[in-house]
Amino acid sequence: MKLAVVRVRGPVRVRHDFVKAMELLGLHKSNSCAIVEDTPVMRKTLVKLKDYCTWGTLDEKTLAELNKKGEKVVHLNPPKKGFGRKGVKMPFKLGGALGDRGEKINDLIMRML
Tens digit of pLDDT for each residue in 50-109? Predict the structure, then answer.
């Protein structure tokens, strides 16, 4: 199973170890998306980055759209109608943009393409 990881927040005031983890994923800029395997190690890394990224499980249609770009890390546009009603500083469960979205990541990525 594949996960899509989208960097939501920029590089200002980010701890050094978080910057290193995002660089290893290839997420150098805001609105960049990396496709990674769903493993326990990756899940722990994403929980560590929960205040800067959002992620979820990809479906076949969205994966095919991202693969058209031919890259492992895809730079996307900002989403139409925004990330969420409470912005990029709140978790997804509370109406924001950060953390695990589950299947709803597909809707976000389609709005960003």
Answer: 999 999 999 999 999 998 888 889 999 999 988 877 888 889 988 888 999 999 999 999
Whole-model pTM: value is 0.90
Pairing label, strands 99-100, 2-7: unpaired
Dihedral through CA 32, CA 35, CA 37, CA 40, nearest 10? 20
Using left for φ > 0, alpha for ψ between -120 and 50, and beta otherwise, residue 70 falls in: left
Q: Which domains does the chain have, with CATH numbers?
A: 2-112 (3.30.1390.20)
Give every CB contact of residue 102 below 8 A, 6+ residues apart in sequence: 56, 57
The SS3 assignment for 45 reads: helix
CB 20 within 8 A of CB 28: no
Length of the chain: 113
